[in-house]
Amino acid sequence: MDVAAVGRLAPTPSGHLHLGNALAFGAAWLSARAAGGRVLLRLEDLDAGRARADVATSQRQDLEWLGLTWDEEVAPQSARQYPLDGIPAFRCLCTRPTRLYLGCRCRVKEHDKGAWRFDTPRGPVEFTDRTRGPQRFLPDEDPILVRADGEAAYPLAVVLDDHRDGVTEVVRGGDLLSATATQLRLYEVLGWAPPSWLHVPVLRGPDGKKLSKSHGSTELRALREAGWTAKRVWEVLGPLLGVGGLAPAEFRPDRVRIGEFLVSDSGEVFGPLEASAALVPAG
Ligand SMILES: [Zn+2]
Fold it and tell me: What tens digit of pLDDT does each residue of 9-43 get?
């Protein structure tokens, strides 16, 4: 048993948790517990304009209801500092259209204001996803690390947080698979050992869009009001993670499903989604 494993549940307190969040957090919890490891809770509340304390409280209640216990709640992002020490970066004054159509030459201009961009070493990044196997992506070209208003952006914050919190495994939604390349490039320039990566399937609503707070009936609090138990949530989501319920002993990364699944308004899961394929219940 790898007692050094540290996983994390990192909700963004701008919307209530839905089935897609439950799937990602369930996988993160199962993976860490299967290794006999610790689970951290970290609020990703960088976007102060959208983060809400009442939503954070409701998210903690939802996680407890689901049975996703954590050993420690670490400092939220809003309470942390994100220095650029050791990271090649330059300040950029370009608007989005300027950058897109004229190109950015700020790297050589040495502005004394503007957003800080990662002077990203070029070339593809290779890594192994614990479920999906070998991956190869180009990192984003010079993504913003610190906005012009001084607020850290997600790629910087998540890398610094995971390193400082001692996180050894990142388990999250499949929509973030390619974003791993930029994060790994940051680990490279900082000389830090990266965590392992596991990306779960993407859940889409009946409109085909990634499950979000716009699909209110798939929020856990709505399902609870409709009579769902936590056991039923895991009966629905468990097959996507290769487990019958919330049972760490059954969890194996290679049994987690790959691809995209559709969730109906009433919380049924269909898939995997393939072009022109008839929908069949998952399981
Ligand atoms: Zn620029």
Answer: 999 999 999 999 999 999 999 999 999 999 999 99
Closest CA to 76 of 37, 48, 116: 48
Please tell me the distance from the alpha carbon of residue 37 to that of residue 32, in angstroms, as a whole number: 5
Q: What tokens appear for 13 in the block?
A: 């307190």
| CA of residue 148 to ligand 1 center, whole Å | 12
For ligand 1, the distance from its centroid to the CA atom of residue 104, given in whole angstroms, is 4
| Token output for 211 | 């499950």
Q: How far is the CA of 159 from the centre of ligand 1 (A)?
A: 23
Distance 277 CA to ligand 1 centre (A): 45
CA of 93 from ligand 1 middle (Å) equals 5
Q: How far is the CA of 18 from the centre of ligand 1 (A)?
A: 38
The model's confidence at residue 2, banded by pLDDT at 50, 70 and 90, is very low
Contact predicate 229/236, CB 8 Å:
no
Residue bearing tokens 């976007």: 47
Q: What does the pLDDT look like over 102-159, one tens digit per residue?
A: 999 999 988 999 999 999 999 999 999 999 999 999 999 999 999 999 999 999 999 9
